[in-house]
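Pasting as-is:
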Amino acid sequence: MKRKIVSTRRSLITTGVIVSLFSIFVVAPSKGADTLVTPVTLVQPSNIPDVAPLPFTGVTAASFTVPTTMVNLTLTPNQGVVGDPFTVSGTGLPASTSVQLTWGTSTGTWVTDIEPSSVNYLGISFTKVTVNMATVTTDANGAFSLPTKVPADFGGVHDIYAAVNGAAVGHTGYQINRTLTISPTSGPIGTPITVTYTGMGASLYTAGGAVHYDNLYAGEEQAIWTRGVGKVVIYASGPRGVHYVNVGNAIGFTYLNVIQSPIPYTNGGSIPFTVTKDAGISAPTETFPSQVTPTSSLHTTLTNVGLDPNTQATMTLSQTTGPILTKVNVKTAKVAADGTYQLVWSTVVGNRVNCPTSTCWAFSSIPIGTATVLNGSSSTDVTIPDNLGGWHVIQMMKGNTIEAQTPFYVKESIMPFYDKSGKQVGLGIAKFDPSTAPDVIARGQAGAPATSFKAGEDFTISIKGVGWTQLDNTLAVTYDNSYIGYGCGFNSNGYMVVRLKATGAPGTHIIDMHPLLYTNQPSFANTPYGMLPVLSSDRDFPGLALGYQVPSFHFTIRVTA
């Protein structure tokens, strides 16, 4: 059974004219580490699942003037949650007149800087929008009454105007409060718990939520693209008995005394979850975002530098995305001259830590094969390198000249372990190898695969294909829903190994990895939600507009006495 927590705060709105609490938070990026940026306000992908459209008619209202004095419209009640009924009414308006009622809302999106060699995260942006709510006709006494329901929209105060002939004649404001539900409310350790938080707002201080499990910080959620509805998944942990899922208003971390703030209606909630048993460990999983249509054609490593200005050659791939070591057929056509060409993999090398100059990383080309062009065409099988993840470009070159190129996206994946016969004997999790021998260091001190560890014993988790931009160079790690840090795969060419310690009571424990918005280096002003697990990354993450598919990973281990 789902439980609903609804704010009962009733003192913010009267039936009189109010001042809207909506505000616009627009990022004003600054230079960081000698980096020049060009802000790109991303266009939201249209096919993100379960996103509510603009409320009511969805039609943008015609502009109208707002005089200093207007009739106060009446709301009954004047606040509620999505789906609640309410009535808008007014008196003292022009008699027997058609009146346009409007609803104030916002649209929101993410802001990035898209460069040939990286993507920088620059923050968020909100824009106010007024939509037509309904058209009503007043009676002979200048009165009307419109019953309706609270739409799926951002939380907070929404201005409602009554307009006649391009001028507002009445005004009020409706407050959308918040609800929290979880599903299911019981299950064994490792049960996926869907946490839904509605009424999140369209401003810096109201757009984020912090998710906790037994007062442990599991991560953050946003509802910028999902119009105030945050939906995330965490996994049940801890011993048998009652635990608590908490969500609170946050710019990353919870605003604990929000009831005393200017936005008291952003209070969150707490719902119990009952762990019924320890069902034992399960196989590791990786969960990718919904496949949405990118809205930007800009890709890292895709530039015209070195491209033959006269080339008519084209390149197509048998598939355009996959993990490292994917087998791909490369076809070219309309190549001007027959002969042998080099196929190369365009990537970068470097890091964000040792940056004494403005150049912290550089382009690098890895040979992946040769193509024999006959009658202007070629067909060649290549293997995607064991290297950085994210967007790369396969190029066909003659000397230093590029004749054709096309992007390929490398997905992150869990590192498999094999025995000498080639049989897979483990996935991701291994004992920690304390040796400092070069070969051991090269594999991140990951030792023999294992899933059971003594309390206090160190172990490792290995991921392949981690990227290098501020959208995909790191993964945030939680242990039993407690955020403990992050790992980076840039300097290690996409191979990320994190070292952890087995802790807690004997039994099953969970480790999760989530996307993270990296805001350390280069750093920019006004970049909220940085360096924290983004639990809502499957539906509300800037990388989705750029074709990034950064997954979340789930692991379980057994701790023994």
